[in-house]
Amino acid sequence: MTTDNLKIPTVALGTWAWGDSGETGDGYFGSSLTRASLEEVADKAHAAGFTLWDTAVVYGMGRSETVLGEVLKRYARSDYQLSTKFTPQAAGSGDDPMADMLEQSLARLGTDYIDIYWIHNPADVARWTPRLIPLLKSGTIKHVGVSNHNLSEIELANQILGDAGFRVEAVQNHYSLLYRSSEDAGILDYCRSQGIPFFAYMVLEQGALTGKYSPENPLPEGTNRAKTYNGMLPQLKALTDRLAAIGQKHGAAAPDVATAWAIAKGATPIIGVTKPNYIDGLVRATSMTLSGDDIAELEALADAANVNTRGWWEKAMQV
């Protein structure tokens, strides 16, 4: 398998929040989504040419995959790409927990193959990576990626797959203006040198970099993201103000600029899409070119904010 036939989009569509039930405290975001509004999101995304959808078993413990599968029924399978994940920490106790989890994902998503199948977290690279090989050989998964792996774990996974004639074809880590550990650890450079696409999640830091939230208008109370980000909103103001100002020059908004920054760094951002107008922002972000000065200024303001947005599930990338 090579990336020759893996279509890498400029932006991927994230469905983490689709796993919420909408009840406060049930799910990460506390969102309230309807089937009709998500179908509108999907229609608008496909019309704009965004067709790679990213989900995972653990997003709502199957709810995100189920909802996504229902919404995508309206299209031919060849019109979109699916990205989902094996999470070792949620593995069952059968003879082949990865094949079992994949089978459940396929059923929920209403498909017989996955375009990119990821190992979500590196619980034991030597144990889990070889399990991908028979799934690749059978065609049930077309391409493989690793998520939240550090550089030595990515290299080990690549070596294990390489011995069987395959390779790591994508890396997905938390990467944003506020959290650049994959860059500092040399992972972006490694991906570039190996021709491996790098996917960035939490580019907007769950809304904290959109400029929508402030100390006066904090993230919704009762959600995990409020606990994480509300205390740092004062430190982020200079950065979000600058994102908005740069956006204004381009006829765009703050989140569009944060997304364009990730694209400029060579990443494919995975942007959570819960409202149709978010697709308009992705269109603006993908058509925007930031100057080197803009990028340097934004990174300096991000450094000055001096906040740590590493998720509880993430280990340090630098070892």
Describe the 3D structure:
The protein has 319 residues and is α/β, with parallel strands linked by helices. It has a single domain (3-210, 261-289), classed as TIM Barrel, CATH 3.20.20. The chain is 41% helix and 13% strand. The chain has helices spanning 35-47, 63-72, 97-109, 125-128, 132-138, 151-162, 181-184, 187-194, 224-229, 233-249, 254-264, 276-286, 292-305, and strands spanning 12-14, 52-54, 81-86, 114-119, 141-147, 170-174, 198-201, 267-272. Strands 1-2-3-4-5-6-7-8 form an eight-stranded parallel beta barrel, surrounded by four helices. Strand 2, helix 2 (63-72) and strand 3 form a beta-alpha-beta unit. The radius of gyration is 19 Å and the shape is globular.
Give the structure's gist in a few sentences.
The chain is about 40% helix and about 15% strand. The chain is an alpha/beta fold.
User: Which H/E pattern describes the elements?
Assistant: EHEHEHEHHEHEHHEHHHEHH
Largest sheet geometry = 8 strands, parallel, barrel
The CATH class designation is Alpha Beta
Q: In which range does the helix fraction lie?
A: 40-55%
Tally of helical segments: 13
Write the topology of this structure.
Layout lengths: L11 E3 L20 H13 L4 E3 L8 H10 L8 E6 L10 H13 L4 E6 L5 H4 L3 H7 L2 E7 L3 H12 L7 E5 L6 H4 L2 H8 L3 E4 L22 H6 L3 H17 L4 H11 L2 E6 L3 H11 L5 H14 L14
Helix pairs in contact: 1-12, 2-3, 10-11, 10-13, 11-12
